[in-house]
């Protein structure tokens, strides 16, 4: 089961002040039903927001090491109980990147921070990169997913995830349809 875990919902009051109620409940319920858990992590707390302007609901923290510490605390608490952690959602869209133009280099810093934190606490847990939004829109609103992914690899992302996150909406073309048929 994939569950969105907002960083601000667990460590929102202040740095190091954790509220595990929500995540404890998810993990216990999943275990009771024999399900494996993937937590999708995003939504920075107010105390971690950079002082560089108006923010949306889901932007990167000022200091990636704060996210690393959060990821480490989360993975330590659920060591062996949460199988995977997905780092953010659609960071190639401005609306998912704090209202700022997407920046693959900044995302790779965030991915690296979480990877290091998770692996330090639970080396067996998987780290999954964010799924990217399929889009043809350009900056400042978005970066097309294939371009963004290329930029991620150029920034060294491949060292910081165990599985590549993908959003494959298919629109009106299921996976078995050839690219030529889908284009028509």
Q: How large is the share of residues in beta strands?
A: 5-15%
Q: Give the CA-CA distance, first to last residue.
A: 35 Å
Name the helix and strand elements from N-terminus to C-terminus, one letter apiece: EHHEHEHEHH
Largest sheet: 4 strands, parallel
Average pLDDT confidence is 93
Ranges with pLDDT <50 over ≥5 residues? none
Q: DSSP helix count?
A: 6
Structural class: alpha/beta
Q: Give the tally of β-strands.
A: 4
State the strand order across the main sheet: 1-2-3-4
How does this model look, in words?
This protein has 184 residues and is α/β, with parallel strands linked by helices. Helices cover 35% and strands 10% of the residues. It has a four-stranded parallel beta sheet with strand order 1-2-3-4. Helix 4 links the parallel strand 3 and strand 4. Helix 3 runs parallel beside helix 4 and helix 4 packs across helix 5.
Keywords for this structure?
184 residues, alpha/beta, four-stranded parallel beta sheet, globular
Write the layout of secondary structure elements.
Blueprint: E1 2-6, H1 7-11, H2 21-32, E2 38-42, H3 64-77, E3 84-87, H4 104-121, E4 126-129, H5 145-154, H6 179-183
Parallel strand pairs: 1-2, 2-3, 3-4
Helix pairs in contact: 3-4, 4-5
């Amino acid at each position: 089961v994939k569950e969105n875990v907002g960083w601000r919902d667990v460590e929102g009051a202040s740095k190091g002040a954790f509220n595990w109620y929500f995540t404890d409940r998810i993990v216990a319920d999943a275990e009771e039903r024999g399900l494996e858990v993937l937590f999708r992590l995003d939504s920075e707390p107010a105390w971690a927001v950079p002082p560089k302007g108006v923010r949306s609901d889901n932007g990167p923290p000022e200091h990636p090491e704060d996210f690393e510490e959060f990821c480490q605390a989360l993975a330590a608490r659920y060591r062996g109980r949460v199988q995977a952690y997905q780092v953010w959602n659609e960071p190639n869209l401005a609306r998912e990147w704090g209202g700022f133009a997407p920046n693959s280099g900044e995302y790779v810093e965030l991915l690296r921070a979480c990877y290091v934190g998770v692996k330090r606490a639970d080396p067996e847990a998987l780290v999954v990169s964010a799924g990217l939004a399929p889009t043809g829109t350009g900056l400042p609103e978005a970066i097309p997913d294939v371009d963004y992914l290329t930029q991620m690899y150029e920034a060294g992302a491949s060292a910081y995830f165990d599985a590549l996150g993908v959003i494959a909406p298919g629109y009106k073309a299921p996976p078995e349809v050839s690219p030529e048929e889908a284009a028509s």
